[in-house]
């Protein structure tokens, strides 16, 4: 049985080869990363800025 967790894990495992729409779809499952260079103005109509930030964060080197 495919669970939500497994589907997300599989998608994240293959994140680098997904197309933009798939990346955004996966990125929308995470909260805002509160990146220092965030350009989102808080307007819900401008959520694409937040999506771009989350995708960029997912593509960065792990800081842990």
Helix content: 40-55%
The biggest beta sheet reads: none
Counting DSSP H or I runs of 4 or more residues, the number of helices is 3
Calculate the mean pLDDT score and round it. 87
| Overall body shape | globular
**Stretches where pLDDT falls below 50 for ≥5 residues?**
none
- What oligomeric assembly is this protein in? single chain
Instruction: Give the helix/strand class.
Output: mainly alpha
Order of SSEs, N→C? Answer: HHH
Radius of gyration from CA coordinates: 13 Å
DSSP, total strands: 0
Terminal-residue CA separation: 31 Å
Q: How would you sum up this structure, described in words?
A:
- The chain is mostly helical.
- The protein has helices at residues 4-13, 20-27, 47-59.
- It starts with a helix and ends in a 5-residue tail after the last helix.
- The mean pLDDT is 87.
State the gist of this model.
The chain has helices at residues 4-13, 20-27, 47-59. The chain is an all-alpha fold and 64 residues long.
List keywords for this structure.
mainly alpha, 64 residues, 3 helices, 48% helix, globular
Topology:
Layout: H1 4-13, H2 20-27, H3 47-59
């Amino acid at each position: 049985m495919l669970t939500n967790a497994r589907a997300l894990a599989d998608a994240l495992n293959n994140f680098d080869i997904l197309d933009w729409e798939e990346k955004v779809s996966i990125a929308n499952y995470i909260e805002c990363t509160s990146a220092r260079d965030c350009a989102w103005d808080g307007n819900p109509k401008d959520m694409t800025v937040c999506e771009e930030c989350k995708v960029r964060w997912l593509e960065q080197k792990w800081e842990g």
